[in-house]
Each structure stands twice: as C-alpha cells, then as structure tokens.
Design goal:
- Strands 1, 2, 3, 4, 5, 6, 7 and 8 form an 8-stranded antiparallel β-sheet that branches.
- A hairpin with a 2-residue loop joins strand 7 and strand 8.
- This protein has one domain (about 5-225): 3-Layer(aba) Sandwich (Protein Transport Mog1p, Chain A), CATH 3.40.1000.
- With about 230 residues, the chain is α+β, with helices and mostly antiparallel strands.
- The chain contains 6 helices and 8 strands.
- Helix 2 packs antiparallel against helix 6 (about 210-225).
- The N and C termini lie far apart (about 50 Å).
- It is about 30% helix and about 25% strand.
C-alpha cells in the first residue's frame, strides 16, 4: 500500500492538456450542422461510470506554450481556436482520489475534411514526439520520481474514426519508500470534418474505460455528420 502522501502527490500532478482543450467560449459562427457535431463531440455523463463525478473544465491550452519543441502543435491549436467552432467537455473523475482517474475532451469543427486532417497532422511525426517527450519532462519537474518519464505512441487505435493517433506518458513517483506510476494518455481522432482531442489519467495502468469513452463519442460524431 502506498503512503497517502504519495497518492496525493500523484493526484496533484497537473494534467498538461497538450490536446489544447478548448475554452467554453466559441470563436466562430456556428451552423446548425456545426452545433450538432459539437453537441455530439464531447464526453457526457452517460459515457463514463455512473459513480464518476464531474466539474466544469478550466481552459488549459497553455500547457505547451513556451516549449520550443511544440511550436507546430501550438500554431495549429492557435489557428483553430481563432477560426473554428469548438466545445469542451466537463472534467470527469473517479470519486476515489487515490485512483487519479480522469477523462475530458474537446472537439473542433472545421469547414471540411482536408482542414481537419491538416490540424490532426500537427500531432504526427518526429516533431510531435519531441513535443510529448518535453511535456513528460515538464510533468515531473520538481517532483520525486523513480526514473525519467517514458513516452510511447498508443498503437491500438486502428479503425477509430477516419484517423487516430495518441501518446502515453508514464512516470513513476516515489515518496516515503512507496512507488506508483501515473499514466497520462492523449488521443487525437478525426471524424470527417471534426477533430477530437481526449486526455485521460490513471494510476498503475492505462485507463480501462478510455477506449469505450472514445468510441462512444466518435460514433455520435459520425452519426451527426451524416
């Protein structure tokens, strides 16, 4: 059993929302179709376990600002925030703080599939990998860790939406002789002309509810775009 302070340390680690979760305010005019996609594109209470709680999310899109490795992603997000309709879910979490289990997401609606694909492409390639490596370093800054954080691509997203990719940051915190590993997952999915960004956290293993949550939202968006 880990000391309580270790568990609380993990829970206190800020989830750096590198998916640039959108602020509630809308930046662009919305058509009826846009509104339907936005409504479909956020996590709802029905998508998570019944006992989970939620709170209004705080805009955390500044997580990557100032990180030179994240210039490409920052530029894509800044343009989308300025020009595209967007929405953000509430922050959902397991009521047991020791589990540090959370889920949240954002959705952007673009004019067409090509524009949405261009946004998603910012999260691909060596530059994006370097960005998430740097983000892992920032997550553990000034916190006791057993080893440097590891960053790996999420490789089981085949068939999710029209294209999907993700990164997982895993870091083991240590305190008073106890260790626990925090997993932070970031997933980006394109569904037609919509781009979805998900952020999950969990202790000791990758969040088991994550795939079902992602699939539920993706399926709603796909239906809304028909």
């Amino acid at each position: 059993m880990l000391p309580p302070r270790t568990r609380m340390l993990i829970f206190a680690v800020p989830v750096a929302a590198s998916l640039a979760l959108a602020a509630p305010a809308m930046a662009a005019a919305q058509s009826k179709s846009d509104k339907a996609i936005l409504k479909a594109g956020v996590i709802t209470k029905a998508d998570v376990p019944a006992e989970w709680t939620s709170k209004r999310g705080k805009s955390s899109g500044d997580a990557l600002k100032g990180l030179k490795e994240c210039k490409k992603i920052n530029a894509a997000v800044a343009a989308a925030k300025q020009d595209e309709p967007r929405a953000r879910s509430r922050e959902f979490s397991d009521p047991v703080p020791a589990n540090a289990t959370t889920a949240e997401n954002a959705v952007y609606v673009f004019a067409d599939k090509k524009s949405a694909g261009k946004f998603v492409s910012a999260y691909k390639g060596s530059a994006a990998t370097a960005c998430f490596n740097r983000l892992g370093t920032e997550v553990v800054r000034n916190r006791p860790v057993a080893a440097p954080p590891s960053v790996a691509p999420i490789t089981d997203l085949q068939g999710v939406g029209d294209e999907a990719l993700g990164y997982e940051i895993a870091t083991t915190f240590t305190q008073n002789g106890g260790n626990a590993t925090l997993y932070i997952d970031f997933i980006v999915v394109r569904v037609g002309r919509a781009a979805l960004g998900f952020a999950f956290t969990n202790v000791d293993a990758r969040i088991t509810q994550g795939p079902d949550i992602v699939n539920a939202v993706v399926q709603r968006v796909a239906a809304a775009e028909k």
